[in-house]
Amino acid sequence: MNILRLLAIIKKEFIQIKRDKPSLIISVVMPLAMLFLFGYAVSTEVDHIPMAVLDQSKTQESRAFIDAYKNSLYFDPDFYVNNINDLNALLDKGTVRAGLIIPPGFSMYNNKSAQVLLKIDGSDPTTARTALSSGIMVSQYFSSKNLQNELSKKGLKLPDSGIDIRTKVEYNPDLNTLIFTIPGLLGLVMQNITIILTAFSLVREKEKGTMEQLIVTPIKSAELMIGKLIPYVLIGYADFLMVLALSMYWFHVPVNGNIFLLLLLGFDFIICALAIGMLISTVAKTQTQAMQGVFMILLPTIILSGFIFPREQMPLIIRAISNIIPLTYFLNILRGIIIKGVGADIILNQIIILTAMGLMLLTLAVLRFRKRLD
């Protein structure tokens, strides 16, 4: 292998990327757009649910009950209505996601249960589940607190019986969604950028006919292949470092584990993504076909890898399919190192599988690519 020829190919590829504005946008703007879009827009936390209130009692107790919902921060009871039809209309329009109906004569001190109705918009199951569980929790806490106050006035107190459960949340005590989402974004950005750039650049060469011109030169097929792929490895790794730095210093997501291990395994995953991009380029004849192939790969990886949806909740056959996606294992590695701070011994199985996948995909891609060159 001639080093000078290899460096010439690498230089030529960087010049082509510099001149190709779409490639520049993909390599620089796309990672930033994905990071800030997912970082700020995608959240599984549900709070400040808009609520309508129909207070037919209008007593001090009913107002205190409404305040309990407001102070919980799960609900924003900002819409007060005078009848049930107005409340239902707000639910129908989507203006509110919950409605609290307090009947006349609401009181906890008349020797019977005080009944209220909490209506919830079930069209969005995620918000509905939070509204349901939070509404029950607020009501139970309000009831228990008022009962305790009433007994205290009489010199009594609730018996210290039952189960006293103490909780401790490991790794993410504040249950911050960003702590879970941002590490996954590192893998997603690396995968998307590397696959897209690799697939499109190689197919574009075929469309323009420049690949054939390079083949007839003294450049060997191995030099051509390596020289064309190295720039995309470097770009993918640079994007990885950029997103990692922004994650740490902008979103304040610390790396609790060994950052050097993280950087090493990041290179391992780039090889997988690079090989997938090469495979797409060997099948696609046009950039349109390459785009279709890329989306056929990227969409399932986002859904099935565990980036957003937990794999444990997926049907068995879908979970089996997700086991052949490299991003699945890299997400476990990222979250293990960044969130949990684990070492290589804990994630050894994921490392072995990811490395094996990378070698198999790269071997297959190289064989197909060299066959096309020869």
Describe the secondary structure blueprint for this structure:
Elements: H1 3-19, H2 21-41, E1 49-55, H3 60-71, E2 75-80, H4 84-93, E3 98-102, E4 117-120, H5 125-153, H6 177-208, H7 210-215, H8 221-249, H9 259-283, H10 287-304, H11 316-322, H12 326-340, H13 348-373
Parallel strand pairs: 1-2, 1-3
Antiparallel strand pairs: 3-4
Helix pairs in contact: 1-8, 2-6, 2-8, 6-8, 6-9, 6-10, 6-12, 8-9, 9-12, 9-13, 12-13
Descriptors:
4 strands; abc type-2 transporter like fold; 4-stranded mixed beta sheet; 13 helices; mainly alpha
What is the structure about, briefly put?
The protein has 13 helices and 4 strands. Helices cover 66% and strands 6% of the residues.
Describe this structure in words.
It is a single chain. With 374 residues, the chain is mostly helical. It has two domains: 3-43 and 179-373, no CATH class; 49-153, abc type-2 transporter like fold. It has helices at residues 3-19, 21-41, 60-71, 84-93, 125-153, 177-208, 210-215, 221-249, 259-283, 287-304, 316-322, 326-340, 348-373, and strands spanning 49-55, 75-80, 98-102, 117-120. A four-stranded mixed beta sheet has the order 2-1-3-4, sandwiched between helices. Helix 9 (259-283) runs parallel beside helix 13. The chain starts with a helix and ends with a helix.
